[in-house]
Amino acid sequence: MSWAIEVQNLNVWYGDKHIIKNVSFRVPKNVIFAIMGPSGCGKSTLLRAMNRLLDLNPHARVEGQVKINGINIYGDNVDVTWVRRQFGMVFQIPNPFPHLSIYENVALGPKLNGLVKDKSQLDELVKQALQKAYLWDEVKNDLRKPASMLSGGQQQRLCIARALALKPRIILMDEPTANLDPVASSKIEELLLELKEDYTIIIVTHNPQQAARVSDYVAFLYMGELIEIGETSTVFTRPSNILTEKYVLGRMG
Amino acid sequence: MDSEKIFLLFLIVFVSTSLLIVAGIVTSLIINSYQIFLRDGLSFIFKNVWNPVKEDYGILPALLGTLISSAIAISIAMPLAISLAIFSAEIAPTSIRGFINSVSDLMASLPSVIYGLWGLYVLAPILNQYIMTPLYQYLGFIPLFSTKPIPTNLFTAGVLLAIMITPFSSSIIREAYNAIPHHLKEAAYSLGMTRWEVIRTLLGYIKSAILAGAFLALGRAMGETVAVAMVVGNTFTLPRSLFDMGYTISSLIANQFPNAEAYSYMMPALYGGALVLFMVGLIINLAGLYWIRRVMTRG
Amino acid sequence: MRLNKRKIIDRLMLGIISVLAIASAIPIFAIIVNVYSEGARYVSLNFLIDLPPPPVGGGGGGIGPALVGTLVLVALALAIGGSIGFFTGLYLSEFSHTRLAQYTQMFLQVMVEFPTIIVGLFAYMILVAPLKRFNALAGAIALSIVIIPYIALNVREAYKSIPYTLKEAAFSLGVSAPIAYLRILLSAARRGVLTALLIGLAKAAGETAPLLLTILGTTFTYFGGLDQPINAIPLLIYNFALSPYERWHQVAWGAAAVLLTIILVIFIFSRLIIKEVKV
């Protein structure tokens, strides 16, 4: 069985604070893998440890291994930009580049990384990404308009298109619907179910119901520790840990 | 991995250049002036003589001139700066506040040579006619006003400096005032205070900002060269009253530098004056930055 | 009764404050009016191009060499000081946790307040004395040094104000640090950076003290080379205003009108840029 990503004995510190405590798990390919837990349990940190975005924080220290295709991304001589290109990332508050147009937002990644040879290839790539993100029909006539003109839900789908344009293996999502209304949220959840056919999706959520709705596998993180992990149906109907049970029943923060 | 390291190195080169420049400036002051300190010691600072032929130099009049003109400047500027800040933040109708602030910022960015030109040909005659001469005629028995005024003197320099440093000082105070938490203002009003009483209370709250504004403005006044050089009279005498012509250290340097190459000790004397000016200015500016830090950590 | 007295004081103080505030704003209007009323009449295309007139007699003449000098010096100063300032500011913003950044920022904040004549003394020592003559390069370097702290601190602000989530988005695309900072994030910060450069531009065009000891202010050649003396508009104003010749005072007013216009244009332009952000 080949895994999309393997996390082994991961520890993260912010200064002296031990945020992620010896976490290990494996994510299969082409599934939706949810990481759930109460606020402040370290979910966002864990996500950022996977694409080494944590490197941007000078106070963060990482120990342990994260492997993609058997390569430890924290090893010596690993090119961090290569690591990041294996992932597409979508953030909690939609963050398209406000000074760029809709088209430019999606095209930026491929252009800078030299993924296409000419303009027509780029146009095609942008169109495909926007189609996959279920945004193409709504914006196809307004590609040159600034991204800031879109609604919250549209902006988030634009960010998904931006992530898809790089043809990553894994999509990381940090509470992608936390700031969206229920209609926009459900549109994105539907989108995720389609995307998993081509990608592995790791989604962080603070809403256990969302995890139950969309994910195939779920991990429950509490105070930086991995409490329980397994198939979603199992974890939600027969949780093996009392903390998990409290969380899925909504009796925890 | 490599490109990150190279980029970091690249940036550090530029940062180091900035630091080297600062260090270089201070060093240049020291190595070009040590001759005069070696020969005369600290008496150089307190002597009142400028005799190139005898190679005898002392910067006391210039030092006093700097202090006096800056003192005049800051005592005029602070009430103006505070008033401007309060007016913009509290009193003026909201629609013109942006305009007032823009005007203030424009004042702060005007080249000093334009201030100097205007000061020399417009301000100086006006001050002479309407303020200095009457003060001399009627209050001339007070030592401060006891010299018959000539338009270009320490007083004019002080007033011109006040005009120049007010906007800068004012913007610091204004920003601090605008940053006062709203609930404090509300609390003051709810106690039944009049508007002026509220303002007075809040000003006490932002004391650090006012001090910061004062120190930084003072530092700027002491360092100003060109505008002062155009209106201060450039005469090497020990000032006895506000209306005496005089020198400031910076205008002394500007004025005497063309002659300096001809004499052995004049160049070190001028660099020495610059060193003194730098040290005094540094202390004042550090004090100002200290108060700014107090403002930041408070808010 | 007591309330009435407090009300009177209230009105009085508010009135005094308003008067003082308006009084402090009067000089700028007076300056603008005076400079244009005294100087605008001399400004013409010829004025901008011609050599200065002789001290007495004859009309005409202009500030040609000084204008060329200002253009040369400002271009150089912006190139040198702008690049040092920009990369320093970028470092200060993105690596602000390092000791180097903290010390540098403190030094730069002090440097902003440096008497600019001292910068002139430094430039004299390193560039004029060795060459044994006043030269344009010394002036350009002196101006660069003066503008570095302004540009660095403003660029730092510009980058600091980019929301962290945009920084994350940029890096998550898997681009290298130079590309992230200089292509993606620079674009996001461009208004602040442009403002920083405009401030530097205005300063370089208007500063006089750094030039007093470095460029000599020759009035009769347009451009003799970087190792030769040169003139500049602020220096011309300074020299001519202090001269005993009425004709040269007139030229000084005219030059002041030109300089004031340049500064006003830069100022208004930078305001418009900032306004766009608010909308």
Structural features, described:
The complex is a heterotrimer of chains A (253), B (299) and C (279). Chain A is α/β, with parallel strands linked by helices and 253 residues long. Chain A has ten helices and ten strands. In chain A, a hairpin with a 2-residue loop joins strand 9 (217-222) and strand 10 (225-231). In chain A, helix 3 (102-112) packs parallel to helix 6 (152-164) and helix 4 (119-132) crosses helix 6. The relative contact order of chain A is 0.19. Chain B has a two-stranded antiparallel sheet with strand order 1-2. Chain B is 78% helix and 1% strand. Chain B starts with a helix and ends with a helix. In chain B, 50% of the residues are buried. In chain B, a hairpin with a 4-residue loop joins strand 1 and strand 2 (56-57). Chain C has 279 residues and is mostly helical. Chain C has twelve helices and no strands. In chain C, helix 1 (2-39) packs across helix 12. The longest helix of chain C is centred in the N-terminal third of the chain and has 38 residues, at 2-39. Chain C starts with a helix and ends with a helix. Classes of the chains: A alpha/beta (253), B mainly alpha (299), C mainly alpha (279). At the B-C interface, helix 1, helix 3, helix 4, helix 5 and helix 6 of B face helix 1, helix 3, helix 4, helix 5 and helix 6 of C.
- Residues in β-strands, percent of chain B: under 5%
Number of helices of chain B: 12
* Amino- and carboxy-terminal Cα gap of chain B: 40 Å
Order of helices and strands of chain C: HHHHHHHHHHHH
What's the number of helices of chain C?
A: 12
Uncertain residue ranges of chain C: none
Strand content of chain C: under 5%
Average of per-residue pLDDT values of chain C: 90
